[in-house]
Design a protein that fits this description.
Blueprint (H helix, E strand, L loop, with lengths): L1 H17 L3 E3 L10 E3 L7 H8 L4 E7 L6 H9 L2 E4 L7 H12 L2 E5 L13 H9 L3 E7 L4 H5 L5 E4 L13 H22 L20
Organism: Levilactobacillus namurensis DSM 19117
Pfam families: Acyltransferase
Protein name: 1-acyl-sn-glycerol-3-phosphate acyltransferase
Length: 215
């Protein structure tokens, strides 16, 4: 109930600020639970990922420091967030989303790189998908990367890719993880090229720069 209310409020706010985004292939999203995976390019890309996949509701990870504030903790929990210790992640990082996905009511949003300042993919999404028996849906965001640019009404496009199913026989050792990561990266590249063949991503924080491999 609260999630639907919050989503409605956010939808109006982002429309007023930036206009109507373009969503590619959202009609092809699965009916059952799944994991949206994508490169993390700005703090608001998960908002657009979730809005485009409406009416499905999502769970997501949030750093545990945010849960120390009682008001913010209440909002996050009612928005289907769960806390994660980024420095010392425990078993709950896997068990909590797997349990949520198996229940069938919620899907999950994960950024395999774990940070807006890293392009290195990590294997948690594949492990969760295999254990929960749900597909990974590659997703990319192209548009403004800062709040200031968001207000400039630079157009936003989100593209959803074809499901990546983790074979139950696949061992998620180093080689298995690398196989899934290669599939995800290839899907991200393909979606980026579909939106804009000349696309390249630059981390506007100035910490690092990441460019499209085909650019």
């Amino acid at each position: 109930m609260f999630y639907s209310f919050l989503r409605g409020i956010i939808r109006v706010i982002v429309y007023v600020i930036n206009g109507r985004p373009t969503y590619l292939h959202r009609d092809e999203l699965p009916d059952g639970p799944y994991i949206l995976v994508g490169p993390h390019r700005t703090w608001f890309d998960p908002i657009y990922f979730a809005l485009g996949a409406s009416p499905r509701q999502f769970s997501f990870m949030a750093k545990e420091e945010l849960f120390k504030n009682p008001i913010l903790r209440w909002i996050l929990r009612h928005a289907n967030a769960f806390p994660v210790n980024r420095d010392h992640p425990g078993p709950s990082v896997i068990k909590t989303p797997v349990r949520t996905l198996r229940q069938g009511d919620l899907s999950l949003i994960i950024f395999p790189s774990g940070s807006r300042h890293s392009s290195e993919l990590k294997g948690g999404a594949a492990v969760i998908a295999k254990m929960a028996k749900v597909p990974l849906i590659p997703t990319v965001y192209q548009g403004p990367l800062t709040f200031k640019r968001l207000f400039s009404r630079q157009h936003i496009t989100v593209a959803y890719g074809q499901p990546i199913t983790i074979d139950r026989k696949l061992k998620l050792d180093e080689a298995g993880q690398a196989q899934v990561e290669a599939q995800m990266q290839a899907a991200f590249n393909q979606l980026d090229q579909e939106i804009d063949p000349n696309f390249h991503y630059v981390d506007v924080s100035g910490e690092k720069h990441h460019e499209h491999p085909n650019a």
